[in-house]
Design brief:
It is a single chain. Helices cover 78% and strands 0% of the residues. The protein is mostly helical and 139 residues long.
Length: 139
């Protein structure tokens, strides 16, 4: 019996039972055997119904789990995209700050006529832990 057969409903199993009944009646069995087989058939039908219900429940659980996994993937993808955008923006601003400081240094050196040191630290090019935590908590 293949697990895929459950998707076809009870038709496969009913067909098999009819075939089995036909074999038993052709073998010349007594009425007692027929009643026993009908009881067995009812028992099997109940079992098959329970298995079908269990299979439906499992399929529904799997569907919900797959949906949850997909939503989690999308959430992580959005967070990753935001982090990359924020990092790129921060690197751009740091580069612009470096250019401004360099231009300021060149202008002062031209005015004074000697080398100048600017003590202003450049902007950070990386994301801080607080920025990462803020982006992750938004989504």
């Amino acid at each position: 019996m293949d697990m895929g057969d459950f998707g076809m409903g009870m038709s496969y199993y009913r067909g098999a039972m009819v075939h089995r009944k036909a074999e038993e009646s052709s073998n010349g069995r007594t009425e007692q055997v027929r009643t026993e087989t009908s009881e067995e058939d009812e028992c099997w039908e109940e079992k098959l119904k329970k298995w079908d219900e269990e299979l439906k429940r499992i399929k529904e659980e799997n569907r919900r789990e797959q949906k949850r996994i997909q939503e989690e993937r999308l959430r992580k993808k959005r967070i990753r995209k935001k982090l990359i955008e924020k990092l790129a923006w921060k690197q751009y601003l740091a580069r612009q700050d470096e250019i401004c400081q360099l231009n300021e240094k060149i202008a002062i050196e031209r005015a004074v006529g000697e080398d100048v040191y600017i003590e202003k630290p450049p902007l950070s090019k990386s994301l801080s832990a607080a920025e990462i935590a803020a982006i992750c908590s938004e989504s």
